[in-house]
Amino acid sequence: MAEVTPQQLADAAGILRAGGIVAFPTETVYGLGANALDAAAVAKIFTAKARPTFDPLIVHVAAVAAAWELVDPDWWEKPATAAARHARDTAQLLATSFWPGPLTLVLPKRSTIPGIVTAGLPTVGLRVPGHALARQLIAAAGVPVAAPSANPFGGISPTRASHVRVPCDALLDGGPCGTGLESTVVGFQDDGQPAVLRLGGISLEALTAVLGAEPITLGQSQIDASTPGVAPGMLTRHYSPRTALQLITGPTQLTAADVGGRRVGLLSLRGDVNRDLPLAHIELLAPRGELTQAAARLFEALHTLDAADLDLILAELVPEEGLGRAINDRLRRAAAQ
Ligand code: TXA
Ligand code: MG
User: Fold this and answer.
1) What is the pLDDT of residues 108-128, one digit of tens each?
2) d(Cα 70, Cα 127) in Å, to the nearest integer?
3) What is the per-residue pLDDT for 225?
4) Of 187, 271, 191, which is closest to residue 233 (Cα–Cα)?
């Protein structure tokens, strides 16, 4: 397990305060952070990732109270309508239930947050990460930290320090990420009802248990880059290896003809596959099929397959339940042309 020294942490916090960019672990994926209140620093993130600026960033804070300080005070303290009050109260309920953790809440922003962070939107995505090192870094920096996943735009998210290949001023190695999928993003509709904008590390079932009813999930795969105010987490093609990737539903049905003369790799939940198939590489996500374990391994397995010099990656969809929904969402986007 990697160890970050107090000196490395203090240095990274100093770099953030001075307007630099730092790659750091969270429980979901590694982030590439900058001082969220410094537009010039945030601009460096977009350059390092080659990320389009229509795509808003998530702002990370060390404690729940610090998140509310970044919300529009008029909306927060004196919600004008019953719908706004419902949204605020629901946000508080979700924060109490899931922060620190893999949940991002999209709420009306305070005017101090520069437009580059939110891609000009009037809302901001807020999150208190579950990884202690991430919170220590943010607390030591003394500023909120805007951070997307630390991968080149559209690529596979990093779940280990060695996956981080974007330029940055410092990289903190906190070992492998425990959750392995990005945060679940929840916003609020005009009627005050919560809506899932991106599936992620908090399952729909867990949200439903707290909310008392299943929140709507916006049909993300119909949205594309030309839709105004849409972010890459919502783009159809994302999380993509360089190698072609094709989805399959059951590896047991694979035959030698599916492989042909090519170097084919398989991403499989449990590896229920005919061992005689001439596969060049197999990555198992979870031998006993636990979806939490599969989620934690997903991006690492995709990185490994992408580095295995294959002609094709076949990826098995997993059961559409719990974190399996978010795993399948990432796989469908990785397969999209
Ligand atoms: O787990 C995570 O969320 C990781 C770690 C580093 O915290 N971060 C992450 O950031 O996945 P990124 O930039 O790769 O994805 C951020 C997504 C956007 O693509 C968008 O879907 C959503 O968060 N988002 C952020 N701000 C938003 C806003 N104001 N309105 C709607 N969606 C927003
Ligand atoms: Mg990302």
Assistant:
1) 999 999 999 999 999 999 999
2) 11
3) 42
4) 187
Report the residue count for the chain: 337
**DSSP string for residues in 234-277:** GSSS-S--SS-EEEES-GGG--HHHHTTS-EEEEESS--S-TTS
**How far is Cα 15 from Cα 170, in angstroms, rounded to an integer?**
8
Q: Which atom of ligand 1 sits closest to the CA of residue 33?
A: 6
Q: How far is the C-alpha of 156 from the C-alpha of 203, rounded, in Å?
A: 21
pLDDT score at 257? 85
Q: Is 123 in the pocket of ligand 1 (CB under 6 A)?
A: yes
The residue whose C-alpha atom lies closest to atom 31 belonging to ligand 1 is 106
**DSSP conformational letter for 30:** -
Q: Beta partners for 188?
A: 194
Query: Residue 273 — very low, low, confident or very high, per pLDDT cuts 50/70/90?
Result: confident
Predicted confidence (pLDDT) per residue in 47-65, tens digit: 999 999 889 999 999 999 9
Q: Compute, in angstroms, the gap from residue 258 CA to the centroid of ligand 1.
A: 37
